[in-house]
Write a structure and sequence with these properties.
The complex is a heterodimer of chains A (322) and B (262). Chain A has 322 residues and is an alpha/beta fold. Chain A folds into 2 domains: 3-183, HUPs (Rossmann fold), CATH 3.40.50.620; 205-321, 3-Layer(aba) Sandwich (Rossmann fold). Chain A contains 8 helices and 17 strands. In chain A, the strands form 3 sheets. Chain A has a 9-stranded mixed sheet with strand order 9-8-7-10-6-1-4-5-11, sandwiched between helices. Chain A has a 5-stranded parallel sheet with strand order 14-13-15-16-17. Chain A has a two-stranded antiparallel ribbon with strand order 2-3. The longest helix of chain A has 15 residues, at 307-321. The radius of gyration of chain A is 21 Å and the shape is elongated. The termini of chain A are far apart. Chain B has one domain (4-222): Rossmann fold, CATH 3.40.50. Chain B contains 7 helices and 13 strands. Chain B has helices spanning 39-54, 72-80, 98-112, 131-139, 192-198, 219-222, 248-258; strands at 4-9, 12-14, 35-37, 58-65, 84-88, 116-120, 143-153, 156-162, 166-173, 176-180, 203-206, 225-232, 240-243. Chain B has a 9-stranded mixed sheet, with helices on both faces. In chain B, strands 2-3 form a two-stranded antiparallel sheet. In chain B, strand 7 (143-153) and strand 8 form a beta hairpin. In chain B, helix 2 packs across helix 5 and helix 3 (98-112) crosses helix 4. The N and C termini of chain B lie far apart (59 Å). Classes of the chains: A alpha/beta (322), B alpha/beta (262). Chains A and B meet through helix 3, helix 4, strand 7, strand 8 and strand 9 of A and helix 3, helix 4, strand 7, strand 8 and strand 9 of B.
Chain lengths: 322, 262
């Protein structure tokens, strides 16, 4: 092991631990002798799963009182680092909250931050990070050059979440210093958007639509194929920006990273922004009118054709089989 | 609020449709040729213009950082309706990392004394995605990221913030920083009149020293991270390509059967 201590920020989705945090804990366990988790809210609910994934201890900044996690968690970690109990590295998941925490922490500590990390490896006494750039066609490797703990913001699906046999993490509380106006944003209400079927980033089959669908109404074709294959429906940024489907369906750099058994890209040309979020799918099928579309360069099966003709035929055939 | 001062952070980037590449020696993104307004920022500009209108008056000031006094992207945003711009341009800025960028932007924004600061969630070229929150922390301001709707209510804003499960309604008093997701509003096309007016709108150009910052904090010197190497990714080879002749769906079915999905 190269490192002594790694802290991992544990993000929470509702009452549960965000899966990406378990992925980071599993990786941290391979790299460091001691892994400590940092979270907010009631830590007792998640101490078991966090412990099983490698953290011996879990620190919580406590109830946020409606505030967002970014300022409170960032300030609490910064205080701990300054008081001398600094780890060798801090792993932060690239989630909505994780990015807020990283930004706050970086500015408070005057420490740089590396984001969009897809892999880390040991090198000498430190870590080298990997980043997929230009739509994943090139791999950039980077490292920190200054002393002190590096802030590593890591994308989902970079590592496997592997529970071990360790028991629950011991929990304690970390004090949050006075946040002054940085902590002034308050959540008034939370809204859950119900979606049918499996979650986009967990589904074994993902069917995504892009501009080639022609209009918003044709997205129904994507939803039908997804449903018939018991998969989830995704989208390119282009049609999310156009308002055809909600942002929660977006696959790509700004949206979700997916790694399904099979990814079916329908009417998606394959902008770098999109490819980075799906190129590690086990199998890729693409349907596109344009033979020159970049998506065909990574597809295992490419159909040069109109999605509005191919998909209805596919739906009919799948319905007959069911 | 009867007059609202909005700062929108904008980035001028190489056209993403063109050939993006890294300089072989410095590993910095090559920024030669004409830079354009990052499309992600056009949403913030539009949002800023709409909120100033909703507030019953006010104006939008652009804040940007670029190495070569570049203003072509700023002119696009000025043509949309922004009133003026602050451009920090200095030869010392090449290779500046995210935190260095945030220090520059924070110092420039301070001069404009805004009620609200808007930014995109991330740029389309570097997409580090931490600069806006770093700016908020440096200015001691609250922030709400990943907004899909922003409404002004007196001296507060109500924001719908994207979450993993849906969205949260978040309330924050001004001044504050808000980042907006793409597609949140429909950016207007600059009118001919707007384009003509933009040519004479004020762009204040400042150097690092003008902002009271030390050049050792920015540029490659201030960046405490380094690129170790850039190599081509393990290529994923193209598979079978067939042209649909009415039977294309059969190939998909056969493939799905082979991998036992159906």
């Amino acid at each position: 092991m190269t490192l002594n201590v790694i802290w991992v920020v544990v993000d929470r989705t509702g009452d549960k631990v965000a899966t990406v945090s378990l992925e980071l804990l599993s990786k941290a366990r391979q790299l460091a002798t001691t892994v400590e988790a940092v979270t907010w809210g009631d830590p007792s609910q998640i101490a078991e799963v966090v412990g099983a994934h490698g953290a011996q201890t879990m620190h919580s900044v406590g109830d946020l009182g409606g505030g967002l996690p970014g300022p409170a968690v960032g300030a609490a970690i910064a205080d701990q680092v300054r008081s001398g109990s600094s780890p060798d590295a801090i792993f932060i998941p690239q989630t909505y909250n994780g990015r807020d925490i990283a930004g706050r922490l970086s500015a408070r500590l005057d420490r740089p931050v590396l984001t969009n990390i897809v892999d880390v490896e040991e090198s000498g006494s430190g870590l080298i990070t990997e980043h997929a750039i230009f739509g994943g066609t090139e791999v950039l490797r980077a490292s920190f050059t200054a002393a002190g703990p590096g802030l590593f913001v890591i994308r989902a699906k970079s590592f496997a979440a592997e529970p071990g046999t360790d028991g629950a993490a011991t929990t304690d509380n970390w004090n949050v210093p006075d946040l002054a106006s940085t902590g002034a944003a308050k959540i008034i209400s939370s809204h859950v958007e119900e979606s049918e079927g499996p979650k986009l980033d967990e589904a074994p089959v993902v069917v995504s639509g892009g501009r080639g669908l022609g209009d918003a109404a044709s997205y129904q074709l994507i939803e039908n194929v997804a449903k018939l294959l018991k998969g989830a429906a995704g989208a390119s940024r282009a049609i999310v920006d156009a308002g055809w489907v909600p942002y929660s369906h977006q696959v790509g750099q700004t949206g979700k990273t997916v790694k399904p058994t099979v990814y079916i890209a329908c009417g998606i040309s394959g902008a770098t922004q999109h490819m980075v979020g799906m190129k590690n799918s086990k199998n890729i099928i693409a349907i596109n009118k344009d033979q020159e579309a970049p998506i065909f360069s990574i597809a295992d099966l490419g159909i040069v054709g109109d999605v509005k003709k191919v998909l209805p035929q596919l739906i009919e055939a799948l319905e007959k089989r069911n | 609020m009867c007059s609202m001062k909005v700062v929108v952070c904008v980035k001028q980037i190489p056209d993403p449709a063109g050939n993006l590449r890294l300089d072989q020696a410095s590993h910095n993104l090559v920024r030669e040729g004409k830079l354009i307004l990052d499309e992600s920022d056009s949403y913030g500009v539009e949002m800023g213009l709409q909120l100033a209108e909703q507030a019953g008056g006010g104006e939008v000031t652009l804040v940007s950082m670029a190495p070569n006094s570049e203003t072509s992207g700023l002119r696009t945003a000025l043509a949309m309706g922004a009133a003026n711009a602050i451009l920090v341009s200095d030869p010392a800025l090449g290779g500046t990392d995210a935190l260095g960028t945030a220090k520059i932007l924070a110092a420039a924004i301070k001069r404009a004394e805004p009620d609200l600061i808007l930014a995109a969630t991330e740029s389309s070229d570097g997409y580090t995605g931490t600069v806006p929150v770093q700016v908020a922390e440096l200015l001691g301001l609250p922030s709400v990221t990943f907004s899909k709707k922003v409404t002004v209510a007196g001296d507060k804003v109500i924001v719908e913030r994207q979450t993993e499960l849906g969205y949260d309604e978040v309330e924050v008093g001004l001044p504050a920083l808000v980042t907006v997701t793409a597609g949140v509003v429909e950016p207007r096309y600059p009118s001919f009149k707007g384009i003509m007016a933009a040519k004479s709108k004020p762009v204040e150009e400042l150097s690092v020293a003008d902002l009271g910052l030390d050049t050792s904090e920015v540029g490659t010197a201030g960046s405490r991270q380094q690129v170790v190497s850039v190599v081509p990714a393990e290529a994923r080879s193209a598979g079978e390509i067939v042209t649909d002749d009415g039977e294309g769906f059969q190939h998909i079915l056969a493939y799905l059967e082979r991998i036992k999905v159906i």
